[in-house]
Design brief:
The protein contains nine helices and 15 strands. The chain is of the alpha+beta class. Bound molecules: 2,5-anhydro-1,6-di-O-phosphono-D-mannitol and magnesium ion. The site of magnesium ion has 4 residues, from strand 5.
Length: about 325
Amino acid sequence: MTINRKVLTLDEFTIQQVRHIPNATGELSTLLRDIGLAAKRVNVEVNKAGLVDILGDAGSVNVQGEDVKKLDIFANDQFTGVLQHGISCAGIASEELDDYIAFDDSVSRNSKYVCLFDPLDGSGNIDVNVSIGTIFGVYRRVTPKGDMACKEDFLQKGTQQVAAGYIVYGSSTMLVYATRRGVNGFTLDQSIGEFTMSHPDIQCPSIGKIYSVNHGNFFQYMEGVRNYINICQKKDKSNGGPYTQRYIGSMVADVHRNLIKGGIFMYPGTLDKPKGKLRLLYECNPFAFIIEVAGGKATDGKQRILDIQPTELHQRTPMFIGSKQMMEELEREMGKS
Ligand code: AHM
Ligand code: MG
C-alpha cells in the first residue's frame, strides 16, 4: 500500500503550523489534539447510539431548563476530561455546566488557554439519526499564569478567540477549526482513527442559494427579518435565485453546509424570546470567528457577534451568519424597519 504523504493528519498539520510561528510553544496544537481525541470518543458513542441503551433523557435538566440526553453528558465528560488532563487548558465552560470550572493543579494553573464548548449541539436530533455536533472556542486567559482561571477569562469578546472550531457527526465525521491564519477541515479516516486534512483553506462563497431559518416562527420575527425571508422566497433567475430553504435544526450541520456551499443561517429573536435561543459564548462566537476568517459575516442584527461584550456565561443572542453578500442584503432590509 502506498501512503500519500501529502495528506496530513490533524496532529501533523497543527505541529506544522507551530513551525511557522516564531516563539510558538505548541500549547494550542496540544489542545487541538486533545479536542480531536475527545471527538473520536464521542464519535464512537454517537455511531452506536441506536444500538446501546444510551438514547433518551438522562433524567435531569440543564441550566437552560432543557432535557439533558445521556450523550450530552458523555460528550461533556469527554471534552472536560481531555482538557483537564492535558497541559494547555486552565479551565472550561460548557453548555452542560451551570458555572465554569477552573482546573486546580499546578500544570493547569500555569496553562495559557481556556476553552468554552457546547459538547453536543442539536441533541434533540440524536434519537432520529440526524447530524449533531460539538462547538468550541479557545481564548488566551487574561488572568496571570499560576493563578486559577477566573470568570473574566471566560467573559471575553469573541474577537479575542485564538482558535474556534466544530465537529460534525454526520455522514462522515469532520473537525473544522479556524485560527487567524485560516480555516481547515479534517475528515475522520475511520481506518486509521485519525482526522485527515480534507478541506484545506476553506473560503465561504460570497453568495449562495441557501437560506436556513425556522419558518415555524415566521410570524414571531421582527419586520426586517420577515421582509428578508420574503425576498429569499421571491428570488428568481433575474436576481440570483431561486433560493432553496434548508433547515436541519442542528446549527453545526446547517452552518457547516452554508460555509462550504454559500448561504445564510438565521436564528432571530422572537416576540416571546427577543434574544433568540442560541448561546453567545459557545455556540455563536466560535461560528462567528470561523465564518469571518473564511470571508463571511456574523451579526446579531445590529452589531458583529464578535464585538458583543459578554456579561453571563449562558447568555443568548439572535444570530445571522453566512455569505458576505447575503448578509449585506439582510442588513439592508433590517436597516429599513
Ligand atoms: P441545543 O443546544 O439545545 O441543542 O439547541 C441548539 C439547536 C441548534 O443546533 C439549532 O440551530 C437550534 O437549536 C434549532 O432550534 P429550533 O428547533 O428552535 O429551530
Ligand atoms: Mg447547543
